[in-house]
Amino acid sequence: MKVYLDAVSTTSLDPMVKETYKKLLDQYYCNSDALYDDGVAIYDMQEKSRKMVAEYLGVKKDEIIFTSGASEANSLAIKGLCFKHKDRKHLITSFYEHSSAYNSFRQLEEEFGYEVTYLKPDQDGKITPEAVKSALRDDTLLVSIMQVNNEIGAINDIEGIAKIVKKHSGTYFHSDITQGLGKIAADLSNVDMASFSAHKIHGLKGSGALMKKEFVELLPIISGGQQEFSLRGGTSNALENIVLAKTIRIALENKEKYHDKIMKMNAHLLESLSDPIRINYSSGLPTLINISTPMQSEVLLNALNDRGIMVSSKSTCGSRKNEENRALSSLGIDENYAIRVSFDYTNTMEEIDYFISNLKEILEKYA
């Protein structure tokens, strides 16, 4: 039996998204910027998708910029804003942002002379509006705080943070909403920029977007032609952009459809974990639970893998590098003994039970 419990890393491709994409591949291969009929047809479908994505997020059509995913969107939002507005050199982010955002700030700090305030989560694992307010300065250009942490599942009050930032003249607010999209609500009315990826919600890898309000000016990170309002050069990945709208629609529909199933699996998993297993964080996103055991995580992962169970110990973007797990270290948790278990509506209670029984058996035998 194979059990996949690493949904925060990536998800399976939704059959309806796959079928639509395959049909498009068979017929629509022209450049969407071409002026003959077939090119115009693809362009029109892409723009229809842009309009639908905007409607799902509650923003305007021209505020959606298609990207290769949240990592690119984060870089465009953070670096693009800083390179366009060089008069303010203070930035605020959190200590446990995704590496694409965190390393963008590190680069701005180390290579371009910006001063960055890295906020650490409170005892509840959250970055609070009050912490952001205390860090704001007259020369603060940008605040970037993720909606849901990808290591522990802590849910930050981005609406509250956005309101605080909006009261501070000249400061912009960006949020990486990758882990929250399709799982929890997000009011983007006061959010200036937001990033997300399709492959976290059963969409295609290499597909995502940056929501950027009309008044926000960015310097392109990828120079090129007219694509994406001249902010992202290169031939448009039109077919992936076209199916992004369907991906989001299905994710939002499934959020309601499978809510009870998700909560039951969450409750069952939490109730079944006992000594010597310690639950590190469980009060955030219901589909992500971080735990520690007496067994080193690398050894435990291999033992589970031998039984067909796939979980992770940290963000996959840093899994092959000896990077600090900033989310766990900020809460005083030893990452060498921690694993994260994440699931979605495609999982079953039988799979949860299979994981629990094998985890306990492994710990009894080897720990």
Look at the structure and give the CATH class of the largest domain. Answer: Alpha Beta
- Strand elements, count: 12
- The mean pLDDT is 95
How helix-rich are the residues, as a percent range? 40-55%
Report the radius of gyration as a whole number of Å: 21 Å
Q: What fraction of residues sit in β-strands?
A: 5-15%
> Architecture of the largest domain, according to CATH?
3-Layer(aba) Sandwich
Strand order of the largest sheet: 2-8-7-6-5-3-4
Order of helices and strands: EHHEHEHEHEHEEEHHHEEHEHEH
Biggest sheet record:
7 strands, mixed
The tally of helices reads 12
Oligomerization category of the chains in this entry: single chain
Please give the alpha-carbon distance between the first and last residues: 23 Å
Quickly give the structural class.
alpha/beta
Query: Might you state the CATH topology name of the largest domain?
Result: Aspartate Aminotransferase, domain 2
Number of domains: 2
- The outline comes out as globular
Low-confidence stretches: none
Under CATH, the homologous superfamily of the largest domain reads: Type I PLP-dependent aspartate aminotransferase-like (Major domain)
Walkthrough of the structure:
- Helices cover 41% and strands 14% of the residues.
- With 367 residues, the chain is of the alpha/beta class.
- The protein folds into 2 domains: 3-11 and 257-366, Aspartate Aminotransferase, domain 1; 15-253, Type I PLP-dependent aspartate aminotransferase-like (Major domain) (Aspartate Aminotransferase, domain 2, 3-Layer(aba) Sandwich).
- A 7-stranded mixed beta sheet has the order 2-8-7-6-5-3-4, sandwiched between helices. The protein has a 3-stranded antiparallel beta sheet with strand order 9-10-12, with no helix packed on it.
- Helix 3 packs parallel to helix 4 and helix 9 runs parallel beside helix 12 (349-366).
